[in-house]
Amino acid sequence: MKIVLAYSGGLDTSVLLKQFVQAGHQVVAMTANLGESDLVAGDGSQDALDAVRRKALALGAVEAVMIDARERFIDDYAYKALAANALYEGVYPLSAALSRPLIADLLVETAAEYAADTVAHGCTGKGNDQVRIEVGVRAKAPHLRTLAPLREKPLSRPDAIAYAQANGVPISHTAAKPYSVDANLWGRSIEAGVLEDPWNAPPEDAYAWTVAPATAPIAGDEVVIAFRHGIPSIGGTHGAQMVFELNKVAGANGVGRIDLIEDRVVGLKSREVYECPGSVTLIEAHKALERLVLTRDELRLKAALDQKYAELIYDAQWPAPLRNALDAFNAKIAERLTGDVRVQLLRGRAVVTGSRSPFALYDESLATYGAGDRFRHDAAGGFIEIHGLPVAAGAAKAAAAAEAATPQPV
Ligand code: ARG
After folding, report:
1. Dihedral of CA 310/315/318/323: which sign?
2. I need a labelling partner for 248 at 20 to 30 A (CA). Which of 74, 180, 221, 276 fits?
């Protein structure tokens, strides 16, 4: 059969590719560039991507396609999550979770292009990513068969290395790495190894994009994020390039480290460490603009819907109709989300220090304690009278009932 394999270039998917080829299948290796290699220390990202393609072909793939999906990822996935301030369990910006429905779409599109009837991935049976990819594939192309060999037959690291050595699969120095890592422009996740004991503090070597807040520069950095209808830019730079640069500057100030005991879709708890300097900064800024512009009712309802949105992303429900409905709500809200937010990046924190917008509901002449106050102080007394009416009535009833229940002295 002809199989489109979601191929990262790492050990597991390289072993899978080789096994498919040995079993006589035609394999199209599909790799999505989501900006991860740009963020790996040093440059030569194009070389790194070419090396992945060449490796797939050397292992016997009939085709190796490298899809530059950076802008699509940011525009159609990450910025929809930004509109919802999406943070799973209050802290995780859903970097890996957001990429899987895109990878599913790319698998489906590549299968159509190369007339393949099967897609395959290297996810294990224990994680969320298998669910996200397969729900995504089913939504778009229910006729496709999906293979998940590492779910049927888990491959231990030593077995993978032994197989690779015996079958001419090159093993990079990262095969011995102590963690399982996934990364794209929205963030980097690190799991397994010593992190599996939740009492162990994450060692410094788990992090690649952020410095330890304690060693970050004392002066920090400042960025002004300009939003136009909810879409950010910094100094005229947009999209993937802007997120890339923000990751660099926020990471250099130790912003975006997250350590979470997380509840997986498949029921178990796991310990996940993330570094998401860019997305954490953008979400802070986006929330600040909302606080300036939206009504109290909008903010209250949106907080609840935002949490639901994050859960949909996490729970592999990206293709669900509810997400489209929430996108429509967020798009309506974003009509007024134009303005600037200044953020100080300082020793692990992204702190908003200023915001302004032509749509601001904040009105200094109402808020001021200084001269020029336009607030009707005299109206507050009557307001309290009526606003407190139910409480006063309830309290009076309770007091009367208590009195009635008190035994009277004879
Ligand atoms: N726990 C995170 C999530 O489910 C990160 C998953 C990272 N994936 C990986 N294959 N290492 O979104």
Report:
1. negative
2. 180
Phi/psi at 209 (5° precision): -110, -10
Question: Helix H segments across 267-405?
Answer: 277-293, 296-314, 321-334, 364-367, 379-387, 389-405
> What's the number of domains the chain is made of?
1
Cα angle: 354, vertex 234, 90; to 5 degrees: 65
Q: Domain containing 33 — which CATH number?
A: 3.90.1260.10
- Alpha carbon of 385 to ligand 1 centroid (Å): 53
Under 8 Å CB-to-CB from 142, ≥6 apart: which residues? none
Helices 11-22 and 157-166 cross at an angle (nearest 10°) of: 50
| Percentage of residues in the chain having pLDDT higher than 90 | 90
Give the closest residue to 85 by CA, choosing from 275, 279, 253.
279
Indicate if ligand 1 lies below 6 Å from the C-beta of 96.
yes
Q: Which atom of ligand 1 is nearest to the CA of 97?
A: 12
Residue 258 lies in a domain: yes
pLDDT digits (tens, 9 = 90+) for 4-49: 999 999 999 999 999 999 999 999 999 999 998 766 644 446 788 8
Domain of 341, in residue numbers: 2-355
Distances (CA, A) of 129 to 8, 172, 267, 311: 14, 24, 13, 14
CB distance 180 to ligand 1 below 6 Å? yes
- List active site positions: 12, 100, 129, 180
List, in order, residues 6 or more apart from 171 with CB less than 8 Å away.
11, 161, 164, 165
Question: Which residues, 6+ apart, have CB-to-CB distance to 85 below 8 Å?
Answer: 283, 286, 287, 290, 306
Give the burial class of 403: count Cβ atoms within 10 A of its Cβ; 0-12 exposed, 13-18 middle, 19 or more buried. Answer: exposed
In a domain, 372, yes or no: no
Which atom of ligand 1 is nearest to 94's Cα?
12
Write down the pLDDT at residue 39: 64
* AA letter at 160: A
pTM above 0.90, yes or no: yes
- Our answer on whether the CB atom of 134 is closer than 6 Å to any ligand 1 atom is no
Cα(76)–Cα(105) distance, integer angstroms: 12
What's residue 42's pLDDT?
45
**Tell me: the pLDDT tens digits for 262-297?**
999 999 999 999 999 999 999 999 999 999 999 999
Residue at 278 is within a domain: yes
> Is residue 391 a part of any domain in this protein?
no
